[in-house]
Amino acid sequence: MESRINYAIVGLFVILLTAGLLWFAYWLASDGGQENYVEYHVYMEESVAGLSTDAAVKYRGVDVGTVKRMMLDPKNPEQVLLVLRIRNDTPITTATRATIRFYGVTGLGYIELQGDNRDAPRLTREKGKTPVIPSTASTMARLDEGLSGLADQASRVLGRINRLLSDDNLKAFSSLLQEGRALAVHLQEQTNRLHVLIDRGVLMENEVIQAFETVQTSADSVESMADTLRDTYGELGQDLRQQTRSGLENLQQLLDELNVLVRQMQRSVQEFNSAPADVLFRRSSTRPGPGENP
User: Fold this and answer.
1) d(CA 109, CA 131)
2) Are 54 and 69 in contact (CB under 8 A)?
3) How far out from the chain centre does Cα 282 lie?
């Protein structure tokens, strides 16, 4: 009897343990516990080397979930699809971005979430579709891209330098240096000549200044002479006016006398025309005409 009770207890214990294990498995499968999780998709266009399943997902350094699955995107093999399992209380918004970060020098990666706008709306599931968190290039990817671009630019620069330092260009550059040297010598000669010309110009300027001073002195002398002549001509003009007035009076008198003489000559001519015999025989007067008084 005692043996049967022990078997019953053992059987009951096994049954309860099995039920507990099944419930625990269901609890894990259904995201049991006090925290619920939401799945998000992230499409990466860069290599996810160093990232593995169950890698941590951090929001500004705080663990908020894990990487559930990693696979190539069936629609675009150039992309990697990451399925993230994140706590539903994490503030995932439309401004949240996902990027790959690495732990120091170990090479192990994790997903870092960052949001630049806290006022952005929450990222929610639409019509049964898994919400997608946009991705940004990691620091290593940007560094690799920058180094690749830098290497390409360095290669192009080296190619241009090789073309610049070709034999033909070196010969042309050597010829240019020789011409530049000759031009420098010619400029030196022209500079010396210019100095001589400047010196002569300075001397000429001094002579011109002296000439202007002489001209100024002459101008002053001429002005003084003009003043003297003005005074002299003033006096001469007054005397000349008096003499002219006197001469004009004498001339007028002479004209009057000439006028009288002309009238006398006219009268004599008339007498000669009327009685030339009387003029020839020196008769003093003409005979009175008819009707005239003797």
Assistant:
1) 23
2) no
3) 122
Tokens encoding 236: 């001469």
Please tell me the distance from the alpha carbon of residue 191 to that of residue 204, in angstroms, as a whole number. 19
Q: Residue 67 and residue 108: Cα distance in Å, rounded?
A: 13
> What single DSSP character describes residue 32?
-
**pLDDT tens digits for 12-64?**
778 888 888 888 777 666 555 445 888 999 999 888 888 889 899 999 888 99
Report pLDDT digits (tens) over 75-99: 888 899 999 999 988 888 888 999 9
For residue 228, give both structure tokens.
Answer: 């003297």
Measured between alpha carbons, how far is 144 from 46 in angstroms, rounded to an integer? 11
Please give the Cα distance from 235 to 242 (Å, whole number).
11
Kindly list the domain boundaries of the chain, sorted by start residue. 33-136, 177-268
DSSP string, 125-160: -BTTBPPB--B---HHHHHHHHHHHHHHHHHHHHHH
Among 97, 98, 88, 93, which Cα is nearest to 119's? 93
Report pLDDT digits (tens) over 161-201. 877 777 777 778 788 888 888 888 888 888 888 888 888 87
| CA angle in degrees (0–180, nearest 5) for 173-179-184 | 125
Q: What type of residue sits at position 7?
A: Y
